[in-house]
């Protein structure tokens, strides 16, 4: 069974910031999460000190982040269905446009509100189950990785996708590329290729 791709960003400033972390899920139910090296044009937020609390330092992003171009290449392979579901579609569209514009590339995916993946279900039940998953899995609504993981868990749970349909371990595991996983100071995984 193929699951939809969920995408979430963390940005330096919600109004006019730049993405510094992104996570997305794969049709297998696995996820990828990376820190993003800022483009030179994006450095104004770090130079001015105007960035979100909890954002990694510029040095960490430069040292441990993936380049925007590398992330775009990864997405070209991972978003083959042409759709991504996002909790905040406006923010996702802004970040996607910003990243694609940095390299003169055309956006090849349609951004869809995450709620569209659950249209046939009662929204209150969906929200209750989302909150339950976050509480039981110790996930937050702040980190992109946690948001992506929450939605893939929610989709599987609410659509009754069980172990016979998909390996349940893949629902909570980063995509395995054969390399050792690194973690940042928060314990969040920072780079899965």
Helix-strand blueprint:
Layout: E1 6-11, E2 19-25, E3 31-35, H1 44-48, H2 58-64, H3 68-78, E4 83-86, H4 89-102, E5 110-113, H5 123-137, H6 144-158
Parallel strand pairs: 1-4, 4-5
Antiparallel strand pairs: 1-2, 2-3
Helix pairs in contact: 5-6
Average predicted confidence as pLDDT: 83
Q: By helix and strand content, what is the structural category?
A: alpha/beta
**Strand residue content:** 5-15%
Distance between the terminal alpha carbons, to the nearest Å? 23 Å
> What overall form do the CA principal axes indicate?
globular
Please explain how this structure is put together.
With 193 residues, this protein is α/β, with parallel strands linked by helices. It is built from six helices and five strands; from the N terminus they run βββαααβαβαα. β4 (83-86), α4 (89-102) and β5 (110-113) form a beta-alpha-beta unit. α5 (123-137) packs across α6 (144-158). The longest helix has 15 residues, at 123-137.
Quick recap:
With 193 residues, the chain is an alpha/beta fold.
Sum up the structure in keywords.
5 strands, globular, 5-stranded mixed β-sheet, 193 residues, alpha/beta, 35% helix, 6 helices, disordered C terminus
């Amino acid at each position: 069974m193929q699951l939809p791709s969920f995408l979430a960003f963390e940005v330096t400033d919600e109004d006019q910031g730049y993405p510094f972390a992104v996570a997305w899920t794969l049709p297998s139910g696995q996820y990828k999460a990376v820190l993003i090296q800022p483009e030179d044009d994006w450095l104004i937020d770090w130079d001015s000190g105007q960035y979100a609390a909890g954002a990694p330092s510029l040095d960490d992003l430069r040292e441990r982040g993936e380049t925007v171009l590398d992330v775009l290449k990864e997405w070209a392979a991972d978003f083959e269905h042409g759709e991504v579901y996002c909790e905040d579609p406006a923010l996702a569209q802004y970040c996607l446009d910003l990243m694609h514009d940095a390299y003169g590339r055309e956006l090849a995916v349609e951004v869809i509100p995450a709620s569209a993946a659950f249209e046939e279900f009662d929204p209150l039940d969906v929200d209750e189950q989302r909150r339950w998953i976050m509480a039981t899995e110790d996930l937050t609504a702040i980190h992109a990785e946690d948001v992506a993981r929450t939605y893939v868990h929610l989709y599987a749970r609410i659509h009754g996708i069980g172990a016979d349909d998909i390996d349940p371990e893949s629902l909570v595991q980063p995509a395995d590329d054969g390399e050792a996983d690194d973690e940042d100071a928060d314990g969040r995984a920072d780079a899965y290729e």
